[in-house]
Amino acid sequence: MAQDSVGLPSDFQFWMRKLSVWDLASTLETQQDTCRHLPRFQEFLRQLYEALKEMDSNAIIERFPTVGQLLAKTCRNPLILAYDESQKILIWCLCCLIKKDPQNSGESKFNSWTRGLLSHILSTFRFDIKEVDLFTQVLGYAPTDYYPGLLKNMVLSLVSELRENHLNGFNTQRRMAPERVRSLSRVCVPLVTLPDFEPLVEALLTYHGHEPQEVLWPEFCDAVNEAFLLKKISLPTSAILCLWLRHLPSLENTMLHLFEKLISSERNFLRRIECFMKDSSLPAAACHPAIFRVVDEMFRYALLETDGALEVLAAIQVFTRCFVEALEKEDKQLKFAFKTYFPYASPSLVMVLLQHPKDIPQGLWHQALKHISEMLKEVVEDQTHGSYGGPFESWFLFVHFGGWADMVAEQLMTSEAEAEAPEALLWLLAFSCSPGAGHQQRAQTMVEVKAVLSCLMKLLRSPTLSARDLQAAAGEGGEGAPRPPACQQLIRRLLLNFLLWAPGGHAIAQEVITLMAQTDAIMHEIIGFLDQTLYRWDHLCVEAPRSRKLARELLAELRGQA
Questions:
Q1: At a CB cut-off of 8 Å and minimum separation 6, what does 186 contact?
Q2: Domain boundaries of the chain, sorted by first residue
């Protein structure tokens, strides 16, 4: 250790100069320079402590006459105090300076000054009682809970001052200066994860001044958002909403974090996606239209970039479900018109889609879907509705509401309202899978789906079924031009619904799915369909014990194979 302390005098002068520069300037460059040197400076503090603990007070002052200045400058630097074990080592160094039996007034004053530095550190940071035990006897403070109480009072005082700032409005005599608010947010950057500082972090986020520009330090917003995403801080939704409204990059990073979670696992099921979504606070915060519009735009771009990936579609539907639930919980009387959330959509169509299927008698679902189809078709194919955007905008609105979008094929298979498949539902099914198709291509898809559906309805009444019967009904293996991918997907959806609802479908389900799942992509699609169907049935309280049992069994087996 003696060897380590040989170079201390020269190191001492180097760090003294560094601390002076850091103390005088508070630019981004000096902060970056401080952060680069934090590991080396901590090692210097450790070596200094090893030297100080072997000397008495007189020897310390003789060898390091400016040690008090160096330690005082260190105490004033929040970045150093927040780094690793630096604050703890600094406390040890300060304890070495205190003389137990001061012989004159000068030594007594020096002890008092040193105690002041220690009190300053403790009033700024929270330490475990075990760490304080090292020097509490030297300080002479009796109650062990004094320092936590001091810290709590300091935080509460600042919180009260920030809130008074909001209440006093333009009363400038009692308002906290914007420069001080900005400085306070910068000091809090390394402290946001400390539990005792959560009230102060919340007060800063909800602070409302009258400045034309944002007063909070951007790095503070970044640090709070990162701590929130990593579950290192617990804040109410109101504070998170303020954070995202003040700092758009934080909201964008939250969305990117959500996308990473959705794709980090090989397969995320809707229940898990719902947990991710609610845990993110995005649906609740999206009750504010500005947040909703940003989130919705990012979903739109993700959908376009992934060419309509099933995972993104599922995430949009789960987000919308959670968002609508949050709206209902927030207030029975909406603060914002739905037009502000969906500005490109027909208001009447939005109101129809917002009706949850569970609020409509099951026997009327068929009619509700026909009405939705007619409204969508009018907007998509009637050029006079150009103000509501093109087909993509209408489709994008429709797929938000998965409760309706996912039940079209099921209603075609199970409804007994008409002997022949209604054109409205066929159109809606074709549009939902291929919004970009032209009128002629969509009509051709409807013809093919109708032919398959007619064959399946005949098989539904057949006393015996085989996998080959379904293969023939679907027109697979026959001659002729191959169907477009969207049409093939629709027919697979009809076949899967047939297996779940037909009395004899259960016996041949495994064989049919094996024949269908020729590729990993199709297997992935089938798993998604079964998961989505069970999720929807749970939310709609659909009573179909046998169909539920089969869907669960198939899903469990396919998960194991995927």
A1: 26, 217, 219, 220
A2: 7-138, 149-165+175-246, 347-561
